[in-house]
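Quick one, tokens below:
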């Protein structure tokens, strides 16, 4: 364990070549915490993911847009019925999927490989076994087959074990509570599927990461109670909310979440992530990863929709608060509307919405920088001004928005500041007669030298 930790922080005990091995290791262990603290935080851009729709009609001619947007992870489906058309017979990836994988590999884009939960073709239901299409052992073999083929394709990947099982045929077939509360046979069955997949895939390669999945904060709590395997790598969540990204869809006293408390009294997204991670840590005796594999808002006039302008404001806010919460990757939903309604960065005619420009601006402004710290709003994460400082190689960038949407002014006159869609910002007169940069619900990006004293003065001077 000691040697592994040293390698993790990029240090080799062999650096002390003149000492005896025992003293060398002891000295290295004493220095390891300092070395770990000295390591640079990963670039913000490493968490930029996107749900692609190539399996649902999005044209492959859209592949280059991934590079334009700065996408580093895509969520793409690998259907069970295509991989195992008859029981026990596994076939190669389809030519279209292989084409996509080749592009991802060539451009160093990781793949969240979404496995489907049922295979009624190879394992049709019977009167004695109505859930045969969801056979855990067969699912585990399918997961291992996909892992091996992805490894052969040379792509970076993680495996997501199904999509929203409470919304799937599994829950309908086996029954139980929609929120996972016992008695819920579908929860127990899904956990058995996860156990089988983790066992098969980890036997093939212990380094392959696997994620369980659902779209309500409480369901993973019940999955953990039902026995998620301790060598599962993390949880994929879909934190959809009808309101702002900083606030979770549940409250600390939401009745259907009981007996768990899944958020703090402020209902903050960051507290929801922290509490779920802590629950996993208590069960696994190690810290699980949290991935957001779907998050977004529809635009237009459909249920829970927002305007394109509001969507463009929410998108970077969602990514930044997710980064602050320690989320590994956020896959925006989605690249194109396809069959899911107006949730795409582009519509089905190829028109790029404001959200597309917001995504691209976010990647260009912050992709190669690292989140340094929150400098305003930490005590009120769901209201008022929120500000974060990012650190790059040669500059810092201050990002600000107002959750309450009212206009605010940052008392600086930076010439290269841009708004949420990348348009240049000019200083204007503030209510007090000074000059400053105006912002509201949509974040603004203000690059510069930004010493700590300058940050404090600017943030304290917001009016």
């Amino acid at each position: 364990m000691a040697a592994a930790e040293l390698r993790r922080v990029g240090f080799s005990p062999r650096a002390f070549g003149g000492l005896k091995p025992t003293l060398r290791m002891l000295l290295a262990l004493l220095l390891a915490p300092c070395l770990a603290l000295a390591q640079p935080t990963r670039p913000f851009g490493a968490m930029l993911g996107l749900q692609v729709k190539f399996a649902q009609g999005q044209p492959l001619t859209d592949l280059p847009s991934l590079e334009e947007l700065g996408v580093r992870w895509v969520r793409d489906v690998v259907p069970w019925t295509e991989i195992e058309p008859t029981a026990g017979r596994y076939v190669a990836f389809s030519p279209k999927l292989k084409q996509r994988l080749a592009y991802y590999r060539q451009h160093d884009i990781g793949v969240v490989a979404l496995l489907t939960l049922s295979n009624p073709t190879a394992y049709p239901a019977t009167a004695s076994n109505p859930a045969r299409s969801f056979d855990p052992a067969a699912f585990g073999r399918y997961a291992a087959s996909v892992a091996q083929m992805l490894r052969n394709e040379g792509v970076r990947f993680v495996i997501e074990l199904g999509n929203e099982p409470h919304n799937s045929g599994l829950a309908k077939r086996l029954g139980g509570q929609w929120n996972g509360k016992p008695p819920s046979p579908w929860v127990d069955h899904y956990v058995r599927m996860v156990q089988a997949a983790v066992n098969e895939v980890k036997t093939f390669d212990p380094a392959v990461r696997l994620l369980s999945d659902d779209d309500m904060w409480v369901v993973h709590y019940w999955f953990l109670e039902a026995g998620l395997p301790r060598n599962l790598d993390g949880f994929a969540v879909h934190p959809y909310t009808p309101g702002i990204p900083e606030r979770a869809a549940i409250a600390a006293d939401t009745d259907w979440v009981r007996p768990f408390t899944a958020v703090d009294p402020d209902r903050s997204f960051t507290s929801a992530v922290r509490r779920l991670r802590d629950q996993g840590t208590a069960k696994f005796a190690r810290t699980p990863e949290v991935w957001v594999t779907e998050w977004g808002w529809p635009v237009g006039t459909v249920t829970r929709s927002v305007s394109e302008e509001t969507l463009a404001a929410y998108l970077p806010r969602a990514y930044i608060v997710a980064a602050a919460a320690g989320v590994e990757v956020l896959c925006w939903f989605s690249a194109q509307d396809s069959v899911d309604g107006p949730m795409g960065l582009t519509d089905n005619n190829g028109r790029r919405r404001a959200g597309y420009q917001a995504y691209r601006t976010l990647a260009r402004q912050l992709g190669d920088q690292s989140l340094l710290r929150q400098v305003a709003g930490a005590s009120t994460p769901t209201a008022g001004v929120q500000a974060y400082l990012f650190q790059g190689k040669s500059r810092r960038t201050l990002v600000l928005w107002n959750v309450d949407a009212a206009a605010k002014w940052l008392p600086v006159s930076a010439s290269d500041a841009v708004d949420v869609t990348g348009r240049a910002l000019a200083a204007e007169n503030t209510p007090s007669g000074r000059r400053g940069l105006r912002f509201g619900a949509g974040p603004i990006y203000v690059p510069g030298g930004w010493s700590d004293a300058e940050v404090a003065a600017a943030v304290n001077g917001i009016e």
